[in-house]
Structure formats: structure tokens, C-alpha cells
Amino acid sequence: MFGKKKSRKRKINNKRTKGGKVPQGRTLSTNDRYLGKGGKTGSKKERPVVVIETNDYNDLAVVPLSSRKGSNRTRLKKYQQGQSYFKHYVEIEDDEGKPIRVNKKFRENHPNMDVSNEDVAFIKDKVFYHSKPMEENKKKINKFRGKKE
Q: How far apart are CA 19 and CA 49, in angstroms?
């Protein structure tokens, strides 16, 4: 009766990869102010971001999604009936300079909101090889991967 303790195991998200990592293409919900230098813009909008890479510490490299077309944005034809765009910026740190992880600032969305693998490949190709901020993005991803600059 009193002697048994309930085990408090954290529920593991069975939609993760075998190693427990957040899969590529998973979307997270966050506020604009938590992304990179977002605190300066003063925006309080909620925004989805898509995971394009994960490292061994479950730190995430993400690309913000948008619902509007504009400069430095590309349409995702196959995601949400073509209503979504992605920004050409890779983010690896939150507003405090800490690595992006699934936490209270970055909430994981349901797997049915995932971006397809081919769309993730398209996003990566665009942000690293065919966009204005590609040099900056490459520097960020190399830092993220732990390579020397």
C-alpha cells in the first residue's frame, strides 16, 4: 500500500528516430522572439520552424516557415497545399544564444505536421547553395556540426 513508489518514467515520443532524436522535417512551434535575434523585432507571433538537422546532443538546426511570400522566401508546393513558404535563414541558437532544443520555447508539433524528406532536401539545397544568406548559413551549420571555421 504505502511502500510502493510509482515510477516516474518520462514518456518517450515514439515518433522519434531510434536514437530518440528529433527527425528531420519535424516542425516545432515557437514565438518569433525566441528565434535568433528575434527579441529585437518585438514580434509576438507564433511561428512554425522545420528541423533540417540534429546533432548528438539533440540540438536542432531549424528554418522558419512563413505563410506569406516575400524576399528571401521560397514556396513549399507540397506542404499544406502549397500555402507555406520557408525563409532562407538557418537558425541554430535561441534568443539567449543557447542551442535550440525541444523545450518550453520550442514545442514539438504532431508528426502529421511534418515536412516530407524531399521538401527537407529542397530546403537544405536552397538555404546552403541558392540563397542570398547562404554564406552565413554555411558558417552557422559548420559551427553547429562542430567544424572549425
A: 22
